[in-house]
Amino acid sequence: MKPLLQVRDLRVAFDLGRHGFLTAVDGVSFDLAQGEFIALVGESGSGKSTTALALIRLVPPPGFISGGRLLWWEEGKGEPVDLLRFSEAQMRERRWRDIAMVFQGAQNALNPVMRIAEQMMETVRAHQAMPRDEILDRAARCLRMVRLEPSRVLRAYPHELSGGMRQRVLIAMSLLMNPRLLILDEPTTALDVITQAHILEILREIQEQMGLTMLLLTHDLAVVAKTAHRVLIMYAGQIVEEAPTVTLFESPYHPYTRGLLQAVPTLRGDLTGKRPIPGAPPDLRHPPPGCRFHPRCPYADEMCRRAEPELEEVGNRRVACHHWRRVAQEAPAQKL
Ligand SMILES: Nc1ncnc2c1ncn2[C@@H]1O[C@H](COP(=O)(O)OP(=O)(O)O)[C@@H](O)[C@H]1O
Ligand code: SF4
Ligand SMILES: [Mg+2]
User: Fold this and answer.
1) I need a surface site. Which of 59, 102, 232, 311 has the fewest CB within 10 A?
2) Residue of minimum CA distance from atom 16 in ligand 1
3) 247 CB contacts (<8 Å, ≥6 apart)?
């Protein structure tokens, strides 16, 4: 597979003034190959959105990217460029055309007094001069990709559409400039289960048909089971496990992944086994010493409290846990 983006040792901090520094993304590295569908999963506050915003260089102040490299392969080029070295003007050219993002909660951020057609028109015109008819053709094509009827939706106002339809409009808008990478931040959160499944199916279809690379952010591991090729698990600003989706569900190596899986009710359809992970993620201004997960981990011992585990490569996966071998043996297999 051809590489598209390699994230290397990415760091993002928020300068909270007298409240100190908060490191939201702390040394994150991962690869996206062309045409892959990757999920980034972790509880709320683990740093998913901040990671994604860093990829398009839109981390809001007082946040800033404090280190790392974003190696990006331009179309048809053999050598990557580092997105972090681009000027803001160069980066602006790449947003939406090369890398598009559907922001978390954006269904509610559509302009309430503008018809969808006008909003789609504005999106295109912000990037490229194009005749009205051509834009409308393109908008209609993108709406059909998300299974919306253009004749009805283009003249609608946002409040005339359901939450699921608004989310699909946003996905259609993100496709307008024909990007190579699409980032979706919690695209199904706040939607009912049936609408969620429908949107995931549409995303997978678009991904396969267009050969688009997708990065899906979610706190809900159930969402990725039938969607993503590969999963990255994030905890307290760091990647703690990475594996192909089927492998991850069948044999999680990290206790946190195992905990997330046990909190998933829908895989076998029974709610009785659902057990949320006790405790809460740490305050990222003062992460715990050693392994950041140790205060919540049933396997934690003295070594875990003292030494930070490295993200080790094990075959086609990665894991950051001193005791992953033990966890791997004990973890129950989840059949997909
Ligand atoms: N604008 C901000 N100002 C201060 N802290 C922030 C801001 N945005 C995010 N954070 C902090 O960064 C951490 C990661 O947040 P976020 O990336 O939103 O996580 P996730 O998307 O996984 O829920 C959290 O501790 C959050 O409080
Ligand atoms: S390193 Fe220790 S505390 Fe951290 S996840 Fe592994 S067993 Fe748990
Ligand atoms: Mg988020």
Assistant:
1) 311
2) 47
3) 316, 317
Question: Which residue from 12, 14, 240 has its CB within 8 A of the most atoms of ligand 1, so it is best to mutate?
Answer: 14
Which of 199, 136, 212 lies closest to 168 in space, CA to CA? 199
For residue 19, the CA-to-ligand 2 centroid distance in Å is 29
Distance 249 CA to ligand 2 centre (A): 19
pLDDT at 268 over 80: no
What is the reported pLDDT for 107?
A: 81
Q: What's the one-letter identity of residue 320?
A: A
pLDDT band of residue 190 (cuts 50, 70, 90) is confident
Candidate from 234, 321, 325 with most ligand 2 atoms within 8 A of CB, to mutate: 321
Name the superfamily (CATH) of residues 3-110+178-330.
Answer: P-loop containing nucleotide triphosphate hydrolases (3.40.50.300)
* C-alpha closest to that of 97 among 154, 150, 39, 56: 56
What tokens were used for 250? 């069948």
As for ligand 2, residues whose beta carbon falls within 6 Å of it are 254-255, 291, 293-294, 297, 299-300, 304, 309, 321-323
* The residue to which tokens 């007298």 are assigned: 18
- Residue of 209, 249, 259 whose CA lies nearest to 229: 249
The runs of H, that is alpha helices, within the chain are 48-55, 88-94, 116-125, 132-145, 150-153, 163-175, 193-210, 221-224, 245-250, 255-262, 302-306, 324-330
**Direct distance between the N- and C-terminal alpha carbons of the chain, in angstroms, rounded to an integer:** 25
